[in-house]
Design goal:
Order of helices and strands of chain B: EHEEEHEHEHHHH
Radius of gyration of chain A: 26 Å
Shape of chain A: globular
Number of helices of chain A: 22
Helix content of chain B: 25-40%
Organism (chain B): Teretinema zuelzerae
Shape of chain B: globular
Keywords (chain B): Oxidoreductase
Structural class of chain B: alpha/beta
Distance between the termini of chain B: 27 Å
Distance between the termini of chain A: 39 Å
Largest sheet of chain A: 7 strands, mixed
Strand order of the largest sheet of chain A: 3-2-4-5-7-6-12
Radius of gyration of chain B: 15 Å
InterPro entries (chain B): IorB_Oxidoreductase, Pyrv/ketoisovalerate_OxRed_cat, Pyrv_flavodox_OxRed_cen
Protein name (chain B): Indolepyruvate oxidoreductase subunit beta
Helix content of chain A: 40-55%
Structural class of chain A: alpha/beta
GO molecular function (chain B): oxidoreductase activity, acting on the aldehyde or oxo group of donors
Largest interface: A-B, 53 and 55 residues
Number of helices of chain B: 7
Strand order of the largest sheet of chain B: 2-3-1-4-5-6
Oligomer: heterodimer
Strand content of chain B: 15-25%
Chain lengths: 554, 188
């Protein structure tokens, strides 16, 4: 055994290596990014198993499925909203008889630290009827990977491992094994188990339903689902899930004092789904109320309300004992337990007015120059028409920071790739000048198909690809294709080469770039403008790498 | 024993380097550490806060409870106040004096100082000047660790070892500069 200091994400990655993973795939997304970063580093610099960034979560998921079909263990990593992109292969894969263990690792972001929604991945597990594992600390994140692979192979189902921001991005000492399990041998699955032709899929669906009984049995005996019964306490029991367990533990000393001599309520911790229904029934037999403390949406609370007899009251996020939105924390749990708020240094302190400090584009960022030119063009186009005639749709990435003052350059941020589709819709609806603004990596993730639609319908709109050469927001992972390939891809999709413009995003070119925007906006068909300049952070990292390589070759 | 620290600053200022140095020192002393970090969108020029928990036994929560922090250690004055509800009434606040102004409506800095001084235990450290004296403006965070060190639950020896381990592999010259910054911070 060794001791290492690891992020939750890194602990999970190392767990995968030690459990004999053969292939790892993913698309960067906070808070999941560091999992694949760790594995890619292992692959590229130390000859570890294959690990690759992919164009999007769907292609990543499909690659992991291929590894599994070949008999080997694979993981695919993404953030919660990434599972929406991979939902098609994910849902269908639940009907395949998984061969080599497959873990879909999804990192949820309650409180939306870096996300557009709070979406709780446990609903997807329930939807697909696949098991879900939920570690509560770095050590569990490391150890659960092997357990998840084992279950995946034993029952031939894909499994989900749900992480959350506060675990993914928290560091602690992890005790890890000295050696790794050997990888599985190369051996194909049976084609009948993997071809979802309707006749075969119907059989597989029946098999999946049959597995549910076995899965429920498994959940009852899974040792990390723990039940501590206190038959003496009749009014209340507690169910925890995810980090709810930690926040209860944080308050436990004071709560035990508060509970007095009749003692603490019975406590069930749910570490994995499907929901251990037998355990909850033992818990509920004689209590009046069950408090559910869970990280994310009121998932267990709803399930409990569905299976328990009406005399048991279930309380939690739906009933207002805990807030419906946001990340869970020790204070919220403290209040739900009926403990008084603690004194703080803020009591009686006269706080001066503090200004908000939202995240912003780096000083000198090329997106700033692109947006300044776009703002100028938009202002002139609207003035020319004498009314609001422009729509600027954008999507997810660093350039989303163009939404805030002083730029206020964009009007929509919905999901990866939505900019192009929404600009098309706005043009169809009647806006004369529709702009879709998208980053280089996002364009490859889910912008290409939007271009296909616009080409097919000859929509008068202008797509602006902000090409900074890197996936900047998540920490500079590579864009799948280099800049010079974007042009060819756009032409290849059928965009008129006369209306593909490649220009530099430079501060001294704002006036001239605005003129290009105006020219292409007037074109009554599809135009694509690629704005090129390397991300500052990517530039710094590249220079550092080059100088290190230069030093080494001396 | 548990000792909880809120680290505050602006994305890109090096808040996490402070966390790394203190965490390493605590581990050299055989203590348990959990440290929650800031990644992604919030890193870019926005206010950032990291939770660091040190104990001589197990630590349950990655987050420090409100009213639970023994110290706020901040890279700049406005951010030092933003997370005050985490600080215990008798907790200590240590901040660099120099404001980080990347917004148009940064408050009057004297107002911030005045508010900070009304706290029972607070220190405003002229960290930039001391870092410059040590030989590198980037050593501001080391000055701050030095200024906080008498209250931290880590030994002087472990802290020195941690600074040494952190910088020795990068550039041996940085070891001396940062050791000096640490010492200047201690005396500040």
């Amino acid at each position: 055994m060794k001791e290492l200091v690891l992020l939750g994400d890194e602990a999970l990655a190392l767990g995968a290596l030690h459990a004999g993973v053969s292939g790892s795939y993913g698309y960067p997304g906070t808070p999941s990014t560091e999992i694949l970063e760790y594995l890619v580093d292992e692959f590229e610099t130390r000859g570890g198993p294959v690990a690759r960034w992919c164009a999007n979560e769907k292609t990543a998921y499909e690659s992991a499925l291929g590894v599994s079909f070949a008999g080997k263990r694979s993981i695919v990593t993404m953030k919660h909203v990434g599972l929406n992109v991979a939902a098609d292969p994910f849902m269908n894969s639940s009907l395949c008889q998984i061969k080599g263990g497959l873990i879909c690792v999804v990192a949820d972001d309650p409180s939306m630290h870096s996300s557009q929604g709070e979406q709780d991945t446990r609903y997807y597990a329930d939807f697909a009827m696949v098991p879900l594992f939920e570690p509560v600390n770095q050590q569990e994140a490391y150890e659960m990977v092997a357990e998840a692979f084992e279950l995946s192979e034993r029952l031939a189902v894909p499994v989900i491992m749900r992480m959350v921001t506060r675990l993914a991005h928290s560091r602690a000492v992890v005790h890890v094994a000295d050696t790794a399990r050997a990888q599985n041998a190369l051996e194909k699955g049976s084609p009948a188990d993997w071809m979802l032709l309707p006749a075969l899929a119907r059989k597989n669906y029946a098999k999946m339903l049959d597995k549910q009984t076995t899965l429920r049995e498994w959940a009852k005996d899974y040792p990390r689902n723990t039940l501590a019964l206190n038959p003496a306490r009749k009014d209340l029991a507690i169910v925890t899930s995810g980090l709810g367990k930690n926040y209860l533990a944080e308050n436990m000393a004071e709560y035990a004092d508060l509970c007095g001599k009749e003692g603490l309520p019975s406590i069930l911790h749910v570490a994995a789904l499907p929901f251990p229904a037998d355990l909850i029934r033992s818990l509920a037999e004689k209590v009046e109320t069950i408090l559910v403390i869970e990280e994310g949406m009121p998932f267990l609370e709803r399930q409990l309300a569905g299976i328990l007899p009406g005399r048991v009251k279930v309380i939690g996020k739906l009933t207002g004992s805990l807030p419906r939105t946001g990340e869970l924390n020790p204070e919220l749990v403290r209040a739900a337990l009926g403990l008084p708020a603690r004194a703080t240094a803020l009591d009686g302190f006269k706080m001066p007015a503090l200004s908000a400090r939202p995240p912003q584009l780096c000083k000198g960022c090329p997106h700033h120059d692109s947006y300044s030119a776009l703002n100028l063009a938009v202002e002139r186009l609207n003035a020319k028409e004498g009314k609001v005639s422009t729509v600027v749709a954008a999507d997810i990435g660093c350039y989303a920071l163009g939404a805030v003052a002083p730029l206020k350059a964009i009007e929509t941020i919905v999901c990866m790739g939505a900019s192009i589709g929404m600009a098309r819709g706005a043009a169809d609806a009647g806006y004369k000048y529709a702009f879709g603004v998208i980053g280089d990596s996002t364009f490859l993730h889910s912008g290409l198909t939007g271009i296909v639609d616009a080409v097919a319908s000859k929509t008068p709109m202008t797509v602006i690809i902000l090409d900074n050469s890197i996936v900047a927001m998540t920490g500079c992972q590579p864009t799948m294709l280099p800049s010079n390939q974007l042009e060819k891809a756009v032409i290849g999709l059928g965009v008129d080469p006369a209306h593909l413009r490649v220009i530099e995003a430079k501060p001294n070119m704002i006036e001239q770039n605005a003129a290009v925007f105006m020219e292409e906006a007037e074109h009554r068909g599809l135009s694509v403008i690629i704005m090129v300049r390397e991300c500052l952070e990517a530039h710094r990292l590249r220079k550092k790498k080059e100088s290190a390589a230069g030093e080494a070759s001396k | 024993m548990t000792y909880d620290i809120i680290l505050a600053g602006v994305g890109g200022q090096g808040v996490l380097s402070i966390a790394t140095i203190i965490a390493r020192a605590a581990m050299i002393d055989g203590l348990t550490v959990r440290q929650s970090e800031v990644h992604g969108m919030s890193q870019r020029g926005g206010g950032v806060q990291a939770h660091m928990r040190i104990a001589d036994g197990p630590i349950s929560s990655d987050l420090i409870p409100t009213g639970g922090a023994d110290m706020i250690l901040a890279m700049e004055p406005m951010e030092s106040l933003r997370y005050l509800s985490w600080l215990k009434p008798e907790g200590i606040l240590v901040t660099a004096a120099e404001p980080f102004v990347n917004i148009p409506d940064y408050p009057e800095v004297e107002t911030l100082y005045a508010a900070i001084r009304t706290l029972k235990r607070s220190r405003i450290v002229a960290a930039e000047a001391l870092a410059r004296e040590a030989g590198n403006l980037k050593s501001v965070n080391m000055v701050l660790i030095g200024a906080a060190s008498s209250s931290l639950p880590v030994s002087e020896k472990a802290l020195a070892q941690s600074v040494h381990d952190t910088f020795a592999k990068k550039d041996p010259k940085l070891v001396d500069i940062n050791m000096k910054a640490l010492a200047l911070g201690e005396k500040a």
